[in-house]
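Researcher: Last one for today. Full complex below.
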Amino acid sequence: MEPVIFEERKTQIHRKGAEPFSISCNKSSLAGAVSQRACVFCGSRVVLYPIADALHLVHGPIGCAVYTWDIRGAMSSGPELHRLSFSTDLREKDVIFGGEKKLYQALVELIDRHGPNAAFVYSTCIVGIIGDDLKAVCKKVEAEKGIPVIPVQSEGFKGNKREGYLAACQAMFTLVGTGDTSAISPLSVNILGDFNLAGEIWIIQDYLKRMGVEVVANITGDGRVEEVRRAHGAALNLVQCSGATMDLAKMMKEKYGIPFKKVSYFGIEDMSDALYEVARFFEDKDPDIMVRTQDLVREELTALYPKLQTLRKDLEGKKAAIYVGGAFKAFSLIKSFRHLGMDVVMVGSQTGTEEDYQELAEITDEGTIIVDDTNPLELSAFIKEKDVDIFVGGVKERPIAYKLGVGFCDHNHERKEALEGFLGMYNFAKEVHATVTSPVWNFTPRRRKSPIAAPDVAVCAGEERTS
Amino acid sequence: MKKAEPFVSTTNACKMCTPLGAAVAFKGLEGCVPFLHGSQGCATYMRRYIISHFREPMDIASSSLGEKDAVYGGKANLMQGMLNVIGKYKAQAVGIATTCLTETIGDDVSQILHEFKKECLAELNGDMPALIHVSTPSYGGSHMEGFHAAVRSMADQLADPAAAKHNGVNLFPGFVSAEDIRHLQDIFAHFGLSVTVLPDYSETLDGPALEDYQNIPGGGTPLDAVRAMPGARVSIECGRTIKAGLSAGKVLQEKHGVALHSLGLPIGLRESDALFATLESLAGCAAPRRYALERGQLLDAMVDGHKYVAGKKAVVYGEEDLVVGMTSFLSEIGIKPVLVATGGESGLLNEAVSVVTEEFPGEPPQVRDGVDFYQIVAEAEALEPDLVIGNSKGYRELARARNIPLIRVGFPIHDRFGSQRVLHVGYRGALNLYDMIVNALIEKKQDDSPVGYGYI
Ligand code: SF4
Ligand code: SF4
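Model: Here's the assembly. Have a good evening.
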């Protein structure tokens, strides 16, 4: 068989045990390789999207806005402006004569119509080429309308999703520090890097509340402009996801001296660790917080464990493959699968760093395939090679798994199922169980080794296709 | 007709961008990999979008231009990308569509392909796949222009001028569902007519479960069949709003003298009748009994259900060709299309809608092109529709917000299962639509009623 790995991509794939660790990453996607990645614009759109009382205007041709219309599962407890898709829908004459005038008019029109608390203006590839002065237009509208109008420099071709995260953080950082911070509790945090998919941030907020910790700003799930403005009043930043909001945390540390902690809310250990980290941080100020936290974790686990054990019986020894946007999620997923008695045999991400992959290599079993910025050809080959039972990925990965008769769990920005917290662990286990134990795999051609019909077989004489 | 308010901004567009349509069309050619010349994001976004409708793998390659390429031109990336995709996918054909970016920086794709063929032939061991290209700047139209343009490019660029005359028919069905394509193929088969349907994604985007992953799914219009199109006895092209210069049928007519029948999408009774009449004349015989029966069953259903639908008002939106077909059908069954809206701007919609509605009494529907959902919702408000008909995009702001049933047709449908299997065309398609519509109205009546009627 032809090798499926592109020569140019060999260094982006590592097999644990077979060779000393080395992987290259954060490269541009290989032309023609059908990368699963999107673009800079995508990165910043993902991060800023859930700020629900802001206007998100995509300056560019229609596609960029249309394909990002309400595709995320980010929920809001109040306004829902973020779920609409705004675009300047650039046309030929704008491309020739420049789109600044149209952008100005569009902004004014939309701000008048919706009365948002801030506006984010995203630039797309074409804006980068025609050279519209986004900053100048935003400044002008800001002065006229009296709300922050923030340019997001997210031209799609200027790197990959990571650069988009940075652009988003820079945009948000212009808001931080502009709000009133009086009356904020000394036991207070900002939740960074959680997008409130399927209401997940509410699960985390509930835990923090039970611990006696105030949440100042949700950045950005269920986010509000006013919260971001006063985020610098919090005592601690909790940063989930190694990529998306880390830059903001760093900027806030530098300028406002707010320390941050990297956390994950996925799986039992990581969720508990996150809460304990917070408790330890505030122990000086509130000596009882640790006890409250221990009680909380105990309570949750007592409820969760028996339920997990029941599911685990059917899952023991099954094999999982993981391909997600950010590497941080992969760590938690590997641990979660271990709780279910399952082995992770392939793991990869769109935007992992070398350190991320190094760490993945350390915690995975021998023989595990570790991959950066992969594509359908490689994914299908790895799935087959490792004979996996479940694949964890996003919408673009789903049909690859299903075609091959492999279970699937959506763990991407678009999921509608809460997977964070102890509750989320249970939801995750249920979903894994539901897909891995489905009877349908008994009938799919690959597992059965009996294809329904070989392609191009002769049709029996006289048979016609009937409707 | 009243002009819609000239908003500057677009809110919730009722269209997609040009290369998306091209990618779907290219997917209907056997052994073809769609390839977008641009930066990576466009291809990935479109894949995601198409996947959510079809629930099938949808590989779209990209030349993944970076900042440098955007400044100095994307030639090197396009060449390397094609080599990669041809090498790994063993593509028989590559359908190259430009994006806004490469249109704006002004890459001359046909020149680059010309050089590619010269320079890379050896590297490919003399095995050069068919390279079809189409220019699809999104600021020059919607996904429908992209779709038609790609179909036209395939018919034009693959056509063999020396193709032998044959008795087959070329069918350009337009942007219909996978099920529609299968149904059309069956109809032709039952007429005993040999047909080349372009594009044919009935299998590539609605394929079987597999034992092994196919880099390129099976199915699609065979390349040789497209090459032979100039030899066909006639072409049939469906779509009343295909802009001049984007018609595959016309290009075959002009360059190769293939006679052309231009029809609407065969949705509803009369548009289906037009197709069947064409087929009868081509086959030289009456339609097979099964279709006479289907037609009769449709009429029977229309009679049985006419009171449920009588005087109901519908808002129809989506692709221009589709809304023309739906409008035609609704008018036939006694539902009043009060607003016919689209994000497309072919300039041909008004005329097409009046042609299919003119024989019915009463006010003609409001026709709006180049609108977004913000405008559609605003207009719909005063019209008080009983029914909304279109893709998933009208669900939240239009249907749900007003508690009006939404009949999902067209593309994209990503909040229901089985989108690729929705049958719109032919008598059977009309019957399917009819059942959906009547049942939605009955369900609404039940839901709104204080009495739990078990018989309605
Ligand atoms: S840049 Fe153009 S081609 Fe790409 S997604 Fe946006 S509108 Fe579509
Ligand atoms: S045009 Fe650029 S910004 Fe828009 S989707 Fe494509 S790559 Fe992303």
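The first helix of chain B runs from residue 18 to 26. Chain B touches chain A through 83 residues (CB under 8 Å).
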